[in-house]
Amino acid sequence: MVANARAKTASGFTRSSSSNPGADLCPASPFFDPSERFLKQTPHLLSLSGEPSRLYRESSERKVTVRTLEQMSKEALADPEKFWGEQAGNLVWHRRWDRVLEWNPPFARWFTGGLLNASANCLDRHMGSETKNKAAIIWESESGESRTLTYFQLHRYVNKFANVLMELGVKKGDRVTIYMPMVPELAVAMLACARLGATHSVVFSGFSSQALVDRVNDALSKVVVTADGGFRKGKLIDLKKVVDKSLLSTPSVEHVVVLKRAGNEVKFGPKDTWWHEAVERAPSCCEPEMVESAHPLFILYTSGTTGKPKGVMHGTGGYLTHLYATAKWVFDFKKTDVFFCTADIGWVTGHSYMVYAPLMHGVTEVMYDGAPDYPAPDRHWAVAEKSGATVLYTTPTALRMYMKYGDAIPNSFDLSALRLLGTVGEPINPEVWMWYFKTIGKERCPVVDTWWQTETGGIMLSACTGIDFVPMKPGSATFPVPGVDAAVVDDEGKVAAPGTKGYLVVRKPWPGMLLSLWGDDEKYKKTYWSRFAGMYYPGDYALADGDGYLWLLGRADDVLKVAGHRLGTMELESAFVSHKCIAEAAVVGRSDATKGEAIIAFLVPKEGVEKSDALRKEVVEHIRTTVGPIAAPDEVYFVGKLPKTRSGKIMRRLLKSIVSGDKIGDITTLEDGAAIDEVRQAYDELKKTLR
Ligand code: WTA
């Protein structure tokens, strides 16, 4: 550790890659002017709390060009097929595609006729170059253990594990559920599935048995890959026990492969195989199965507005093309980079920008298994220093947490290797953005705020440091990446006037877009393509300011973002009512200074059940064990009835106003056909309860 990070250079920083298009347009201009002038505007900026401002661009004396990006985006949208076809040329294809896009709205098939393999694109492609012997994954645990796997070692490991899966009967098209802690073997298992053309379905290891059962049964997985246990904040998480419990109600599962990670005692049944024993026996070469471009690489379950999570299904060629391109544009990946993405692989950020994108680019990535604040609230800084991370990609929640602990902690680490900072998952408040920029980046590193979703596969809106320098506005995700046709529209689907809040939409297909929802094309159509004709609807509020910068303003539906984790209110409500004492449940989010949103639950106990503290504890525990600790509510209120419309829909908006102390306003306009008296009664009752 050193006392101070490297001093910033007088001119900010200069472009680092001569291969960037546009390098000639602004050879010496900094991406961002870290001058007094900018910093003087900070108070103005801070008072905005999320509201857009034109703070920087207009006041800057230096004219920073956005020409290259604009030009590239214009050309891409004028002929998307030509543009994306060129990008696909960065992948390794066994057979070139016949058509770039087959678009039968709303179903897109990219690079049809093309054959490729995702694991070959991440690993085999490097076996003939010097990347072969460089670190692919540097792994760190919360207790300070570390491991490094080179590209060669990872390739060998994936080949062997693919043979293990093959031996267990896994073949192209089969589904494999992976339920593991954040260890390199999780990436190995995913890549091994990809090698065989099997579709992986990773379930976040923080989820509990019911969540696992639902996901395995929906995908009808043949094999589950897990570990004996994992660690979280020094506590053992007995994963095998969760799997054992789930197996009682997942009949499709024929085999379970168990990695020895935590060393806890496990019960072995007839379906179980130890990972290490099987790998030791397995041959070290497994030819990659070449699959058609739209072959499903993975299913990842995510929350929506219905009671059950949706299986977002991604293809291979389009998805990888999107990732390769966006990683280059946004992170400007170079061979010397050490990329530290703090996401868990159980979420889409881990899939896309921890497994597939960095490995395709042959960069070294850092994988951290643990909480950001255990054993001390310094873990990301400690790991970044130790690994020499050059790019850090994390969440606003993590930053808000670190910010609370003050500057001294990050300042005690040498973070001078960092050149770029990224965020994802939630809107970032300008104050937090500034803290990231100043305290962590020491005003040397651009901050890229990347907006995207499980469904979009890869980044959709972000500054693109690998293409051009656009002035940053703290809190704005800036512009769509080239080839993505995003806009903000009003209720009727017409482009909203600058500065007006509306809905974010995407007007053209893009290569990373989901193929469909697993086994449910109708729901896919209804969820994403029915709100506005011919446009993809992500469910986010946004606005475009006068400069065309995009500002994300939170979810427009009943999806919560708790510490960056996506959770559906209906899903949580069904989990509550699965408790024997609960008749009805309503869940809403309340804004939280650290986690973004906190879960507040209103529960109606069944007749004759006493509303006690013991019951409150019991239902919280019920949620922890059925869904997982991340879904545990912050507050639980017992009520006699819930405010509903005449058709029985819970009026969450009303509840939300109550918990956030907002004015209720005229409730007759809140929902059509609302049983007003009942609502008033319920509201009065809630108010009393909350007092
Ligand atoms: C939110 C995470 C504001 C948004 C990659 C989106 C963001 C949902 C940002 C998807 C951002 C993601 N600014 N909001 N930069 N990035 N979101 O599927 O509401 O877990 O719809 O994917 O996160 O969450 P998901």
Sequence-ordered SSE layout with sheet pairings:
Blueprint: H1 36-40, H2 42-46, H3 67-78, H4 80-88, E1 99-104, E2 107-112, E3 115-116, H5 118-122, E4 135-141, E5 146-150, H6 151-167, E6 175-179, H7 184-196, E7 199-202, H8 209-219, E8 223-227, E9 230-232, E10 235-237, H9 239-247, E11 255-259, E12 272-274, H10 275-281, E13 291-292, E14 298-302, E15 310-314, H11 317-331, E16 338-341, H12 348-361, E17 364-369, H13 379-387, E18 391-394, H14 396-404, H15 408-411, E19 420-424, H16 430-440, E20 447-450, E21 486-489, E22 502-506, E23 516-517, H17 521-529, E24 540-544, E25 550-555, E26 559-562, E27 565-568, H18 569-577, E28 582-592, E29 596-605, H19 613-626, E30 635-638, H20 652-660, H21 676-690
Parallel strand pairs: 4-17, 6-7, 6-8, 7-14, 8-11, 11-12, 16-17, 16-18, 18-19, 19-20, 29-30
Antiparallel strand pairs: 1-2, 3-13, 4-5, 9-10, 14-15, 15-23, 21-22, 22-24, 24-25, 26-27, 28-29
The structure holds 5'-O-[(S)-ethoxy(hydroxy)phosphoryl]adenosine.
The site of 5'-O-[(S)-ethoxy(hydroxy)phosphoryl]adenosine (WTA) has 22 residues, from helix 12, strand 20 and strand 25.
